[in-house]
Amino acid sequence: MGRTSETVLIILCVLITVKAFEMEIIPADRVVARIGEILILTCNTTGCALPKFSWRTQMDYPLGGKVYNNKTYSTLTMNPVSAENSNDYLCTVICNKEKKEKSVKVELYSFPSNPVIETSTSLVVGETTTVICKIHDVFPSEHLELLLKKDEYILHSKTFEGDVSTKTETKAVAYSFNLTTEDNGKEITCVARLQIDSMDFEPKERSTSLKLNAHFGPQNTFINTFPGNSSMEGHSLKLTCVTESNPPAKVFWRKHLAKENIQHFVKNNVLSIPHAHFTDSGQYICEVINPITNKTEKATMNIVIQAPPKNTSLTVFPSSSVREGESVTISCAAAGVPAVQIILEKKIGDVITALETEDGKYTIDKAQLKDAGKYQCTFTNKFGNRSLDVELDVKVPPQNITVLVYPSENVKEGENITIMCSTYSNPPSQMILRKVNQEKKIILPAINGTFMLYNVTKNDTGRYLLDVFNEVGNNVKVIEIAVVGKLEKPDQIMPLIIAFSCVAAVAVPVVAILIYVSRKAKINGSYSLVKALRLKV
């Protein structure tokens, strides 16, 4: 009984602490939003583990948004919110057969920009001018009022009451009048008001102003040249475009049949050529445009400049220093009055070779060392000639490397080794020699391509890397060096002494016996080796 009572008490406590099922909508009751923004409605619950959500609108219009359900809340997102979303939204939640509903009213407006003033015709004195004031993307337009004023005087006003709209609209008001000189400088103002007392937003009034200006021209346009339309190269020249216009006309200078814009200094209506070139010859056109009346006029003037070849150039692309195998183009360019003849030549010592160009260009597809040398462009016309030259350098990485080891790769301790290296490259190569797998890294530089190893030992045995390199590339050669020990001569003195002693030990008695026998023979007149031996015994 005791355990049962405790269990019942625990269940009662849990039931008492469980929160009651509740719901709310955020924002609550009413929300004011601007069309084009993002609007999120949230239906939130408490006291329910697995609620079921549903959204609908009054009169079951389309939701116009996306629903996202989470465990305890649901959101309705309108991105962007539009005029069609102006409605009452109802959220329904069911929890364990218990149903609850709440609604929120969405009220929308759109008043995003200032009004725009347009004129239907040019503001020309004596002509009828129509001024139009427009306001874009307004909602709801039935609350809109437009005013058109000249200074503080109201020219026209209009309201749009009863104009029930279901989307954003553009509204306008227009007024026409004859432009006079007294109107010049007066201000036309368009005021737009969107007054909705029940909705809190800012601004509720916008305005735009435009000053009136009486326009005319351009007219009586001509070009004045100083000192004249014919000049020598190097002299200064000024061309002035004269016209009558209000507002001042925009002046555009161009050269007849020119592919590029004029590069001379232009200030207001004056084109200045401080130092005339022969390329400045041609017909110049001054075109003036009144930006308000859209009326245009133009005037022309022929300019003649004569000179020997100028603006000559000799260029090498991509560079006057290239790697072997790269493409390189040599270009000669000039301009002149009259036309300039271009000749490209290659000079190596006293040998001159004429090269065939196309439009002053000569291309070497794959540059070789033989293509290096001086290239000269000569520009000629009847007023003179000029020459330009450039030195083409073709860089070649180390090639055709030869290595000579003296006396050989296999030597005895104490000997010297000479390693001689030669290669073909441009610019000249540098060389270093280092031993492979050596704890202390030692690099030997070359002296005129020669390395010296003095008094070698067995520790000098191993593989050596010969690195030959220049700024273009490098090449590596492997050299195997083997150092063996010295050959020691065997000690032959002692065997000789022993052999000599043995021979002497035998030879001395024999010689003594022979001498004795010989003497006996001389006395007796005969010689017997047996008798002699017997006598000795």
From TrEMBL:
Gene name linked to the record: VCAM1
Principal location listed in the UniProt entry: membrane
UniProt superkingdom: Eukaryota
Coiled coil: none
Molecular function in Gene Ontology: integrin binding
GO biological process annotation, one example: cell-cell adhesion
Protein name in UniProt: Vascular cell adhesion molecule 1
Cited Gene3D superfamilies: Immunoglobulins
Subcellular location per the Swiss-Prot or TrEMBL entry: Cell membrane
A family per Pfam: I-set
Signal peptide annotation: 1-20
